[in-house]
Model the fold of this input.
Amino acid sequence: MDKTSKRKLVPAEQPSPSERRRIGTVVHDDRGNASVTWRDAPVDMERPVLEILGDPGLTIKHEDSFDPYARAGRQPTPAPARKGGAAPRTDLRKLSEWIKMMRELEERKKTDGGD
Done:
């Protein structure tokens, strides 16, 4: 077999897959999930022209733009002030010792009072 017999010939009126024009439509199934269905666009269909209309009054100034990753030149944000002041911290070791002492007193009362 020669190499020419293995090639597929594409007719001239049919564009290649990369040049094919298709129209996508969003459809929803019975559960409400969205998906896109594609169909071939008609040959005589004109594409809408999308263009950006320039307005000379609208410009982006680089010094006014926000870069969330830039740390240079930023002032640290102050911590929010607490209302009513901070509550004193509880020492849990002292609490644990107090609970043990109260249990020992209860045990003593039971053993002394039961005799």
